[in-house]
């Protein structure tokens, strides 16, 4: 297994919350898939959860070396949770095709947040 890319991103929770307050569901629908929304909306402070997932999506784009655009859209990246609570990444559509083209077979994720910031670290690897 070789490392193909790494990515890290940090998001100010208040800034993401302000975007949600300004744009409402339109912003959430543009950035997050229905399963992500259902999970985050169950939290007492959904903005923290959304911020961690937004950071993860940006970190995936960095790890793949594509940025968000034609080869990888925000909605191509889904952050899910195992029964144990461990987060994991599922790529869809063009994002899955891009990862395959790059030889990526595994994406590892670590998420964390504090009162003001959410951070994500991604390692993309392949054979």
How would you describe what is shown here?
It contains 5 helices and 5 strands; from the N terminus they run βααααββαββ. By secondary structure, it is an alpha+beta fold. Strands 1-5-4 form a 3-stranded antiparallel beta sheet. The protein has a two-stranded antiparallel ribbon with strand order 2-3. It is globular and about 40 Å long. The model has no long low-confidence stretch (mean pLDDT 96).
CATH top level is Alpha Beta
Helix content: 40-55%
| Largest sheet properties | 3 strands, antiparallel
Number of strands: 5
pLDDT averaged residue by residue: 96
CATH superfamily: 4'-phosphopantetheinyl transferase domain
**Envelope shape:** globular
Q: Count the domains.
A: 1
Low-confidence stretches: none
CATH topology: Ribosomal Protein L22, Chain A
Percent range for β-strand residues? 25-35%
> Roughly how many Å apart are the termini?
5 Å
The CATH architecture term is Alpha-Beta Complex
């Amino acid at each position: 297994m070789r490392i193909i890319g790494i990515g890290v991103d940090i998001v100010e929770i208040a800034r993401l919350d302000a975007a949600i307050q300004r744009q409402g569901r339109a912003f959430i629908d543009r950035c997050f898939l229905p399963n992500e929304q259902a999970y985050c909306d169950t939290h007492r402070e959904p903005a923290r959860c959304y911020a961690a997932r937004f950071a993860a999506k940006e970190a995936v784009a960095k790890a793949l070396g594509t940025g968000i655009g034609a080869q990888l859209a925000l909605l191509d990246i889904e952050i899910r949770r195992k029964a144990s609570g461990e987060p994991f990444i599922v790529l869809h559509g063009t994002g899955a095709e891009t990862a395959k083209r790059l030889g990526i077979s595994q994406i590892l994720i670590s998420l964390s947040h504090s009162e003001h910031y959410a951070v994500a670290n991604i390692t993309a690897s392949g054979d």
